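pls design
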């Protein structure tokens, strides 16, 4: 089994699913898991880790960058 590594943290499930769709379009399998422990009855969306196979990390980062809206990206400037 290939080790899964974190490519991104999404603010909520909806954002995580959007990232998952971008990766799927690029042919990259991904998994989602909560980024924090939370009570099962909590109704608030929680941050989610987006995981990809370790050998595909760079390709996944490039796919997310290429498919994201330019105004959604945070620059280092």
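designed seq:
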């Amino acid at each position: 089994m290939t080790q899964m590594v974190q490519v991104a943290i999404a603010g909520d499930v909806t954002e995580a699913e959007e990232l998952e769709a971008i990766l799927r379009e690029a042919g990259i399998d991904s998994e989602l898991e909560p980024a924090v422990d939370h009570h099962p009855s909590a109704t608030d969306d929680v941050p989610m880790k987006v995981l990809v196979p370790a050998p595909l990390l760079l390709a996944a980062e490039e796919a997310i960058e290429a498919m994201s809206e330019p105004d959604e990206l945070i620059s280092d400037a």
